[in-house]
C-alpha cells in the first residue's frame, strides 16, 4: 500500500528552556552517532542497528524514560525513537549515555517524513504514548491517529505486530477508538476494563504519565494488533 501524506506541517514546540551544558555536549557528541538522517531512498530499519533484527518504534518519546527503559530491558531489540522536541532528545541522550545503551537510534524530525522509506512489515511494534490531543474540533486533523497515518502504520507493522496508544485525554481516547478498530487491518483484543486501564506489564511509566496521574487524570492504554495479511 503506497503512503501519501500531503501535509507535513508540524504544529508542536521544537525547543523549550535552555539546556544544561552536559546535555548540550551530548547533542554535539552523542546525537551524531545515533541520529537517523532524513531518508533519500528506501531504508531497512534493522540496518540501523548492530545485530538487532526486530525494531520497535516510539513516536514522540517525550523525555525518553520509557524508551530507555524498554531498550535496557530488551537488548535484542532495536529501538527507534522519533521526537522533534530538542529538550526531549537531549533527555533521552542522557539516559542512553548513563545506561550505556547500544540499541537506540533517534530521528529528531517529523516521523511522517521517515516512515514512507521503510518497507512493509518491517516493524514489530509502534508506540504512540500520550500524544498532543489537539482537543479542539478544528484541530482534529493534527492528531497522528487518522486514516492516512493508520494506513501507514498498517503497512509497516508485521503480521501480529502491535500499535500501542496511551492517552490521558478522553477526547483522544474516543477519537482513537473511533478510528483504529474500524480500520480493516487492526483488531482490538479486549475482554474487560483492565485491558485499557492497566499499563502493559512490560512497560514503565513515562514522566508525562506520572504527572497525569498526580493531577488526577486517568490514563488509558489501548493495544491494537495487525491482522494477518491475506494472499
Descriptive account of the structure:
- The radius of gyration is 17 Å and the shape is globular.
- The protein has a 7-stranded mixed sheet with strand order 3-2-1-4-5-7-6, sandwiched between helices.
- The model is unreliable at 1-6 (pLDDT under 50).
- It is of the alpha/beta class.
- The chain has a single domain, classed as Vaccinia Virus protein VP39 (Rossmann fold, 3-Layer(aba) Sandwich).
- The chain is built from 8 helices and 7 strands, in the order ααβαβαββαβαβααβ.
- 29% of the residues lie in helices and 19% in strands.
- Strand 4 (123-129), helix 5 (147-156) and strand 5 (157-167) form a beta-alpha-beta unit.
- Helix 1 (21-29) packs across helix 4.
Map the helices and strands.
Elements: H1 21-29, H2 31-34, E1 54-59, H3 65-73, E2 77-82, H4 86-99, E3 104-107, E4 123-129, H5 147-156, E5 157-167, H6 170-179, E6 186-188, H7 194-197, H8 207-214, E7 220-226
Parallel strand pairs: 1-2, 1-4, 2-3, 4-5
Antiparallel strand pairs: 5-7, 6-7
The CATH superfamily is identified as Vaccinia Virus protein VP39
Q: Give the name of the CATH architecture.
A: 3-Layer(aba) Sandwich
Gross geometry: globular
Give the SSE order as H and E letters: HHEHEHEEHEHEHHE
What level of helicity do the residues show? 25-40%
For the largest beta-sheet, the strand count, sense and barrel status come to: 7 strands, mixed
Strand order of the largest sheet: 3-2-1-4-5-7-6
Short key terms for the protein model shown above:
single chain; 231 residues; Rossmann fold; seven-stranded mixed beta sheet; 7 strands; 29% helix; globular
Amino acid at each position: 500500500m503506497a503512503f501519501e501524506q500531503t501535509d507535513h506541517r508540524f504544529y508542536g514546540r521544537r525547543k523549550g528552556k535552555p539546556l544544561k551544558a552536559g546535555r548540550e555536549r551530548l547533542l554535539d557528541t552523542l546525537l551524531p552517532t545515533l541520529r537517523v538522517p532524513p531518508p533519500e531512498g528506501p531504508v531497512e530499519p534493522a540496518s540501523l542497528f548492530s545485530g538487532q533484527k526486530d525494531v520497535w518504534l516510539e513516536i514522540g518519546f517525550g523525555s525518553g524514560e520509557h524508551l530507555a527503559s524498554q531498550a535496557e530491558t530488551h537488548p535484542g531489540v532495536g529501538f527507534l525513537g522519533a521526537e522533534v522536541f530538542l529538550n526531549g532528545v537531549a533527555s533521552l541522550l542522557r539516559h542512553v549515555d548513563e545506561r550505556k545503551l547500544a540499541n537506540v537510534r533517534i530521528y529528531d524530525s517529523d516521523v511522517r517524513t521517515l516512515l514512507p522509506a521503510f518497507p512493509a512489515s518491517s516493524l514489530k511494534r509502534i508506540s504512540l504514548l500520550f500524544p498532543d490531543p489537539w482537543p479542539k474540533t478544528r484541530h482534529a486533523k493534527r492528531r497522528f491517529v487518522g486514516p492516512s497515518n493508520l494506513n501507514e502504520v498498517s503497512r509497516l507493522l508485521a503480521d501480529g505486530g502491535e500499535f500501542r496508544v496511551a492517552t490521558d485525554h478522553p477526547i483522544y481516547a474516543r477519537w482513537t477508538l473511533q478510528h483504529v478498530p474500524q480500520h480493516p487491518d487492526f483488531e482490538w483484543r479486549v475482554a474487560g476494563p483492565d485491558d485499557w486501564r492497566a499499563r502493559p506489564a512490560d512497560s514503565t511509566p513515562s514522566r508525562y504519565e506520572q504527572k497525569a496521574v498526580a493531577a488526577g487524570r486517568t490514563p488509558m492504554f489501548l493495544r491494537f494488533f495487525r491482522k494477518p495479511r491475506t494472499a
